[in-house]
Design brief:
The structure is a homotetramer. Chain A has about 290 residues and is of the alpha/beta class. The first copy, chain A, has eight helices and eleven strands. In chain A, strands 3, 4, 5, 6, 7, 8, 9, 10 and 11 form a nine-stranded parallel sheet that branches. A two-stranded antiparallel sheet of chain A has the order 1-2. In chain A, strand 1 and strand 2 form a beta hairpin. In chain A, helix 1 runs parallel beside helix 8 and helix 7 runs parallel beside helix 8. The longest helix of chain A has 17 residues. Chain A is globular. The interface between A and D is medium-sized, with 30 and 30 residues.
Chain lengths: ~290, ~290, ~290, ~290
């Protein structure tokens, strides 16, 4: 197995106190507060993303997710709205004081992604080194998803590409690995979260939606992630999952998201953390 | 994938309220209280198991584990003390009012296992159907570990062998699956726990020690298991792990176990559960 | 990873020239001739096994397979005809001068398995150490299948249990490992065959039927196994796969088996081997 | 699992006779002749690639491989000589009448890759859709490696991106998948080769070097690939593997390559194929 070289920038030793990544709009990831990022898999149209943003804001989540440039296994699947999707996402987010996270697949898309608070590198691109090198030259926060077949060491070394190039604003995201189990889309690897929190100073969040691929497991896995020491979640919610153009079966309904936020609070309290809330409604876990 | 036939005894529909397995000594697994079973991988000698039992009792765990008939990958590894190991385990447990759990590999060992509260079927024997059929004819609690490469459906169908044969006192145990990741011994699959709790009425516990294979991940994974809805833990503790004849690198030290119990309490409270404590010291999570 | 201890009986160094396992009826496995064992997954009734045996003998294969004690994932699946199945298998085999191979799941079945030339330990029982120890005390040939999630090292260590107990008549069988790929039932691991032939002196055969789980891949994989250096095949054939009680989708039809034997000949010749044929019809590859 | 839509360009039905990809210099991949592409993992300097090219030409292989833009897990590993590496590779190849294959990681590298006969998309970039779309607009042959965790269906859908964009000159390459087995770097999946040859009309070759990660398995796996129906090999050879900057442990030595070519001949003959040889020395398998 490839080992992380001693002295690597990504290692905990390089920054024992941990890194806090600050998103525009004052959301801090990696601090005491647990940050829930939520939204649909893809931005489909204005009405859908507005409705989803309502749900996200109402639940108290500070970050809106939504894909505009979509990596799809088949060239015949919906490929995202592209630049227009980014504009719809940013409009929906800014109207509600939310930060926005969306995926970047190609450095050529960066001009269209101005205003996006957090640039996501998807699991399929974790070792797209041309993309990593381009992002390493920016001073913008990057969310680096673990590839479905990457070891923890490989994931951290991909992050090292970003740090070595000069961009220290990196958040890691565990989203399930590929195993023999077919009851779930992927297998959520919370050991990797516990381990990554020890090995690196970077914040680590969890995407339970892509891991499970089914709505009914998302709440349980989210609570487990919080207890395991994750710094936040990236979770899918859709106003009408049955009509979703992408991954509807794993999207929560708006009431599910509110219920999840309600249930996260005491678990986070149990591990000495709080839940990040939009300023107006921010509550410290009691 | 093999599907569980409709009408199977193992399915949640057969017993919507859930099954509580009662171990001799009044420990209930599958109820509101979370049961921590702890002890060394193997019973090595009287002094070791007595010392381990002290640690287990002192931490407030109601069940002592310890292997006597050991399945080992190599024929040249320590194979366990066999019948003598069972006697030492039972002596150490009963002196402290603990129930005992140990592995059975062969129906021929059953006479030697009289007095054991919970008979463990190890991961390697999950589909040893001759053994399952023999245990199905007993009226004794069985702990059925998931094989390292079994799907959740296959695991539940293995349990169905026990129920179909007449033994309904079955506890399931997730202990990590085999994946490409080499940083951990196995990959703990908490999705399987969330899923199994929905699919079946049987209690489900988690073995974080064999999953991780390394002590430093055990506490984090234990808290995650509690938050995910598991009904208990099977965790390794050894008075001097460096001298252990088996799996020392994954064993907690006695103070680690006490600390784990302390940390479990608020997380369990966060999901509406309590921690099972030996009668004298039993505390409801507040 | 568990390493095979230096000096282990299973290692090539212990017997550089290789082991030839002789089955009753003078079939040698591990020599220059490649041995094809064929037959149905399960013995279903007299007519079926007789018809299958006709196909096997007509194709020139010297060994008839057929399960009598069947390990099935579900307790509600056909569990095999047991002792009666063994009798039907032996009758069909002996009438045609074939050796017989069938699975043993439990030492208690051994009396019923008298007359069976080759006792198969199935993949699920590769680490059923009680069974291995019982078989190690016999002087009868054993076919040890690799478990679906066993490393090559673990497989060889399971064989070491047999050799260490005194039984050196062991044939290994690779039958596919469990991976993420769903297009095949398992993933045939021919690297393991090449590697095992280097690491150990024991003969190694391949079961392409369980590996693929689908008839249309069996011939291609069989040729590949022959080229990779395997010593033989264990392949499923059924007179009417659509009516099979078990694994029909992976069974060849009788004409497929003849065609496979015809195609094996020149490939074996290409790697300096010949095809084992029943005495009457034995042909050296030309 | 993602299914290939009916009517997809990649499916066998679209071109039942199969596709032959012609490389500049008249090498045809996908026809009756089996094409061996060989060379070092990376171009290191002029002397090394010249020496390697000598070995490749002397063995009769028509295509020289050598990486110039290298995807490396760690940013601190040798990243390849880039544009200069391409020049050295092309010089070494053209001097000997060989075609050249090298990896492209980023469309921005395409100008530097003029003259390269076959553009390789590495396993890590199999689902780098921006790269696939850029390559789909070229009329140049592309070698598409299967990702270490891609199903066969996903691999074919990645090829569909190329065909749907207008580039039909696609060769597939199986190079091992990621599994639990640690004795090999990856697990060569020859079932995928047999299956892909049925599902698609595109040529399929095999990289036994990255699959095995160790020299001693390469010959056996190469013979198996030929017998399984592959259309060629991509194999690593290095004049002094112990000094290689990249993957030396899996590189053949020049005499190994000659020996491999010698052994391939009769196996290919056994399956009705011949071995592609440089015009001067081209031999039909006899």
């Amino acid at each position: 197995m490839q080992q992380i070289p001693t002295g690597s920038l990504v290692l905990r030793e390089a920054r024992p106190g941990g890194t806090v990544v600050e998103l525009p709009g004052c959301v801090e990831v990696g601090g005491r507060a647990f940050v829930v990022m939520a939204g649909p898999c893809a931005v489909e149209n204005a009405a859908q993303i507005e409705e989803a943003a309502d749900a996200v804001a109402a639940a108290g989540c500070p970050v809106l997710r939504g894909g505009a440039f979509k990596p799809r296994t088949s060239p015949y699947s919906f490929q995202g709205l592209g630049e227009q999707g980014v504009r719809l996402l940013l409009a929906a987010a800014s109207r509600r004081g939310l930060a926005a996270v969306t995926e970047v697949m190609d450095p050529a898309e960066l001009p269209a992604l101005e205003g996006v608070a957090l640039l996501q590198v998807g699991a399929r691109n974790m070792q797209n080194f041309a993309l990593l090198k381009a992002l390493s030259r920016l001073q913008r926060p990057v969310l680096l998803k673990r590839a479905a077949s990457a070891t923890v060491e490989e994931w951290l070394l991909a992050a090292e590409y970003l740090l070595a190039g000069g961009n220290a604003q990196v958040i890691l995201c565990e989203r399930g690995i590929r195993t023999f189990e077919t009851a779930t889309r992927n297998t959520l690897d919370l050991s990797a979260v516990v381990l990554a929190k020890q090995r690196t100073h970077l914040p680590v969040i969890v995407d339970p939606s892509h891991a499970a691929g089914r709505r009914d497991l998302v709440a349980g896995l989210s609570l487990a992630a919080a207890a395991a020491g994750a710094d936040g979640l990236l979770v899918e919610v859709h106003p009408r999952p049955a009509e979703a153009l992408c991954d509807g079966s794993q999207a929560l309904l708006p009431p599910d998201l509110r219920e999840l936020m309600r249930r996260l609070l005491p678990v986070l309290h149990g591990v000495g953390r709080e839940l990040w809330r939009a300023p107006a409604q921010r509550m410290v876990a009691r």
